[in-house]
């Protein structure tokens, strides 16, 4: 499978303090691969190293150790930047500009052809095509509107790979829903989306792959279904019915007198109908797999294995 991002053993150490005597390691032996055309969510608590990793991938920061490629080019390669879009977490825009003027300015900097047509497409994509939105100055925008115009500027050059740093941060539920819709639309266009987030429900809803950073270590990575299990798996408890028919639906079926329990991997509706037709009753049906929040908390509480911890810096 073709990869958009492939890095190995990335480590970033920097000095802090007045005399720069104290060494701090924000990223430790981080290796990951992101296939082309997927949505990848990088998760972790504050200070885990998410933004550090993002800046290294963008070429804004150099790793202390390790290396890799982005879109087939070495980290920091200038030529690849034309194929990348980026939305910073706390982006600053010239707030005296309108949304249209901002996109015109960014498109000019990047040498985007047919800018007028592209701007119209992007304003429509992010829901700012109305005259009052496109003509309003950015300083008059709501937080959600600023995020949406930020995504538009990240897409002005029609990039193959889009980096979004905390795109849902500070948004109300409607604003988060709108941003999720935009990200899902990008995936349908075949673009690769890499974003940092601490809003786990949003990541679970839209990501194909996730990685979890803790204290600079990548402690888990993979497809959502591989990490959490298949979606339609339920723990079912019931009473009565035909044991043979119930056994056709449930895994690990256990009977205790007239009561039974097991795992359902088929349609709940069909199972309900069969049980009731055979004179039985479903008492409870609960999603069996962990959700992403439970998995995340588990990985954070497990901490960093001693064998992977770096030696204390001098």
Outline the structure in words:
With 314 residues, the chain is α/β, with parallel strands linked by helices. The chain folds into two domains: 3-228, Rossmann fold (3-Layer(aba) Sandwich); 234-287. The chain contains eleven helices and 14 strands. The protein has helices spanning 50-58, 99-109, 115-125, 131-134, 143-154, 173-188, 200-206, 224-228, 243-247, 268-277, 292-302; strands at residues 3-16, 22-35, 39-43, 65-70, 73-74, 84-87, 161-165, 192-197, 209-214, 217-223, 234-239, 250-256, 259-264, 281-287. The chain has a six-stranded mixed β-sheet with strand order 6-7-8-3-9-10, sandwiched between helices. A four-stranded antiparallel β-sheet has the order 2-1-4-5, with helices on one face. The two termini are 42 Å apart. The relative contact order is 0.14.
CATH class of the largest domain: Alpha Beta
Write the CATH architecture name of the largest domain. 3-Layer(aba) Sandwich
What best-fitting shape do the alpha-carbon axes yield? globular
- What topology, given as strand order, has the largest sheet? 6-7-8-3-9-10
- Rg, rounded, reads 24 Å
Give me the number of helical elements.
11
Extract low-pLDDT stretches: 309-314
Query: What would CATH call the homologous superfamily of the largest domain?
Result: P-loop containing nucleotide triphosphate hydrolases
Number of strands: 14
- What is the number of independent domains? 2
